[in-house]
Amino acid sequence: MIETAVVILNWNGLSFLQKFLKNIIEKTEDKNTAVYIIDNSSTDSSISYINETYPHIPIIQLNKNYGFAGGYNRGLENIEAEFYILLNSDIEVTENWTKPLTKALKNDSTIAACMPKIKSYYEKEYFEYAGAAGGFIDKFGYPFCHGRLFNHREKDMGQYESQTNIFWASGAAMCIRSKAFKEIHGFDEDFFAHMEEIDVCWRLKNRGYSIQYIPSSTIYHIGGGTLPKENPFKTYLNFRNNLFLLYKNLTHEKLRTTLFIRRTLDIIAYLSFVAKLDFKNAHAIISAHRDFTKAIPTLKQKRIELEQNRKVSNHPEVYSKSIIIQAFICRKKKLY
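The chain above was modelled as a monomer; its predicted structure follows.
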């Protein structure tokens, strides 16, 4: 068994593999670390490209597109390593980028997962949207990051150079103990894609583990490689999965009130799309709530099972105010 497996989930990502795989291999592979590809039944020439150009790279080919959650769950079953680093295909890595991540996990057994500093590939002085300098949520479940609040991204001026506890690590580049990943049975495949990494981190934190941001490791991420930012399907997944996230992981005392407020805020978001005549994204919110309601019996069973393993109920990494109010009414660009 190797120490670290850097695992790239691919779906029709030929252009990213051509652009970044050489860099990842050259700055990653050593006697303790290997690169793997999990392929979600691509229909482009991704597989033939890897086989011809990098024949030593193991490829785990799946029989259909299982999404981010299902793809990783099935692929990682076939990889034996102490640590998994889940890495998007649209990422440029830097020299020795894996070592600070695995060192953090080796030095502290209570850390289940961690993430590097994630900056923009096209604007290298700025943080990237998906993860930036570590993920958090507010009291209503809205995710945000150090270095990124909604669409505002900060320039990296050295303001986030301390290793610190965070609420969630980005799925774009997450280093996680294989033992902890298996302990919680991996990603929730009902999410398909988007926010499943927040769910994993929340479940781990409820069990008493911590999640950390490691600034001594840096990567550069293109972002938005699979679904464009304004894609209605992405809107649907974000709204539905955020409701899944809250229903599964909130304590009984907070669940009812939080869901009521979130439904109200989602109505406001729906009306905002309607006012802009963006009916496709407005409909996506309606569909998200419809499918959340249908899923409640399944989510309820998951809640029962998760509560049996809960050790921690309150997390200091949850922002105590509403980021909606702070960003759009108070006009704040960052919260800490």
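The longest strand covers residues 210-221.
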